[in-house]
Amino acid sequence: MSVVGEQLQPTIFELSRPGRGGGKIPHPPAGALDRIPASARRATPPALPEIAEPEVVRHYVNLSTLNYAVDTGFYPLGSCTMKYNPKLNEWAARLPGFAALHPLAPDAAAQGTLQLLWELEAMLAEISGMTAVTLQPAAGAQGELTGILMVRAYHASRGDLERTEVLVPDSSHGTNPATASMAGFKTITIPSAPDGGVDLDAFRAALGPRTAAIMITNPSTLGLFEARIGELLEATHAVGALAYMDGANLNAILGRFRPGEAGFDVMHINTHKTFSTPHGGGGPGAGPVGVRDALEPFLPGPRVIREADGSFRLERSGERPTSIGRVRSFFGSTGVLVRAYAYLRSHGGTGLREVSDDAVLAANYLKALVGQAYQVPFDRPCMHEFVASAADLKHRTGVRTLDVAKRLIDKGYHPPTIYFPLTVEEAMLIEPTETESLETLDGFAAALIEIAREAETDPELVTSAPHDAPVRRLDEASAARQPNLRWRGMTGSEMPCPD
Amino acid sequence: MPYGPHAAGDRARMLEVVGVDSVDRLFDDIPEALRSGPLRLDPPEPELELSARLQALAGRNLTDLAGFLGAGAYRHWTPAAVDQMLLRSEWYTAYTPYQPEVSQGTLQSIYEYQSLLAELTAMDVVSASHYDGGAATAEAALMTSRATGRKRVLVSRGVHPHYRGTLATYAAGAGLTVEDIPLVAQGPSAGTTDFAALERLLADGIPVAGVVAANPNVLGLLEDMPRVGELAHGAGALFVHVIEPVSLAVLATPGETGADIACGEGQPLGIPLQYGGPYLGIVACRNALVRQIPGRLVGLTRDLDGKRAFVMTMRAREQDIRREKAASNICTNQALLALAAGIYLTAIGPHGLRDVAALGAARASELEAALAAAGAPRIHDGPYLNEFVVRVPDAPRVHARLLELGVLAGIPTADLLPGEPALDDGLLVCATEVTTPAEISRFASALAAELTMAAGLTGGAA
Ligand SMILES: Cc1ncc(COP(=O)(O)O)c(C=O)c1O
Predict the structure, then answer these.
(1) What gap in Å lies between CA B131 and CA B139, rounded to an integer?
(2) Within an 8 Å CB–CB cutoff, is residue A108 touching chain B?
(3) ipTM > 0.85, yes or no
(4) Domains within chain B, CATH numbers bracketed
(5) A457 CA to chain B: closest CA distance, Å?
(6) How many domains does chain A have?
(7) Boundaries of domain holding A250
(8) Whole-number pLDDT of residue B461
(9) What is the DSSP letter of A192?
């Protein structure tokens, strides 16, 4: 049985019929727009669909059932921390006092939200071991950009203008080098050592007076704690560069390792990973950034300030000239931050440490089981996720990681992250998270092992998977070659919706 | 741990399979000197107590004011169906549709969003989403630079100052020069982009990648957008049209004004104000620029059996494929907000959207008349849709005083756009379809009383 709905849906444009829908907005008085000059008006009305609400609702409900989600099943997408999203947090974000607050509301009207944000900054500073935190960035990648722009401003403030390079390990996430480019730096890629960590000699050789920063993911994207982190940080600081930590994998180390305390200068946190704000089908997230003293003057504005009388206010524009400036329209993704706040308070310090303990235990347990049928390249405990490889399987049977992933769909699971990190052949990055039961982990491992067996006995079954999904594998090549990126016209189509 | 799944004995069984006696052993790779002590955070709070805490915090915000504040984020009525649909777990607890076979819901919803916004903007290509209006404007400016190979961008001071601020931050990294195009200070076109100044900037010999202007502009005024486009194109630059999406039900679209790129804030399309986010950054462009557009795109294709289906496409622009050569570093985007906008537009329909815009305009006319009668006439002469500036002496003080009376009287223009002497005594106010006649008269009478009192005080002192 398919784990998602089977019935593909027509588009809203195909459902449209003139005259349907309406009744939501009172009719404006005649002539309401007469004062708008004709030249400023739209010539042809937009061809938006006309659908009555019952059909609108059915459309979006039926469409939703075509999605696999954390609330429908196990979603071990490595690097993404697809843990359970507590429902209390959804309720909290919708409280009218939070949801209806205008972003430019005067401080006096925003004291509840400002207090929440101020407390959240303090909690994240404690968890990260940093001096100060900005909650503004909208996602991890924007946190990276914010952090690296601060690094740039820091060097510039010291008249140190020759630092044009950022070092990034070859196992890093694509956002790291992309960020370095956006911030105007050249990316220098550092190879990994056989144990999965950064190759210290290559790293030392690349460091120098041109190095502005290093960007290290710790635990790494291989799910390993960077055991030589002390040496890496020392060498970095010795040449006057700063150390950025990609905190996407913070879920492994809560209450065990505080990056700021250990010597990182700046890091981002993905609230949509570690602190369980829902992933929303691709977003929204939030990417708070923590910094140590040296970078605090450069934090983006506005910051939340607590006055001597206990009231809160937002920094005024221009109040802190050292700031890198704004990174977004308004304060931040506050609706997301309310959820993260609720998560942190519900767990407290002890609960957060248990989160990491259980996440790491679950990953090691699953690794032991999966290791019976797949290669697990690094022979040491993993953190909250691990890499398995189907390279042997592929050489023996022709079945690739992609096929294994698609076959998992038939067995009721969302596939792990595949072909990332780039440093392991036929990689599957598997992250169970701490909110999955033993039965779920056992079931998933059994499915993976069974697929390995199927690859030996009936490879065709695996390479032609999925068999139990609303669609089979897609023609991605022609989608890219002749892109069709929007519906044109209201009815009829070269490609009707299949029955 | 509040949401932990384990029964008594589960952990012991797992440890046994792993082959260690304690979970601490799994953290041996952390160098001893770098291990942290316990987190100094409050103890866990049970849901019952936490919900009371959250309610108390939310209750400290004042959100039941008569509100006339817009300036880039707008109070609108949203059909209840929108949030009911968003609360389905299949939407909000999924992630990026990397596996299209089990993500057709999200993929089709994004394709529909792209199509809806393409209709609304009359542009060819719409990205799956960006962080917000500010980030979208910054990305649009970077796009003009990539497309033209030039490094200088001109931005009207009629573009929201926070968008300009965000753009300046991004530009610092990308090595772009950003220059302001001033606003006309006086006369019939006061408050709109100064075309004479724009022409001078375009003619000064340093090539320009893009010209960015907003309609309505941040003062609520309608700009002659086709003229911006002509001037930009005449200098070989691209034209970026910053939109407000609800207004596009009635105002000339970027497609019609000759824009190469459109960008803006999607919050008015069914997204709550929630103190600034999560919002929805919109970026759209013409076909010719499709390979330069940042962010995800969903396309229509077929599966192996020829069945119609949707998939993320043209991925060679993105960070996970191209790394340091990507068009942008964006990864997690605002998919759920794009979904909200799609449901909003579908539920409200083309006539409903036009009614939202027209009713807002009607309420704004009433507001204008009431405030003028109270002694606060408009500052500018040019046409506006539903947001405008009125002259109020000592505006920041009056604004604070009205807040005490339960009226959120827009925003003092001196705070929003410092450095424009013509706007020192202004309040930027806005009306939408949710503004009521009762709120308008509350605002007008409080303002009249305040202005009379201030006049009396001045009179007494003289
Ligand atoms: C290791 C790593 N770094 C950075 C990011 C980027 O974060 P975001 O997607 O929130 O922008 C991700 C997640 O996608 C990640 O897994």
Answers:
(1) 10
(2) yes
(3) yes
(4) 66-70+349-455 (3.90.1150.10), 80-344 (3.40.640.10)
(5) 24
(6) 1
(7) 89-345
(8) 44
(9) B
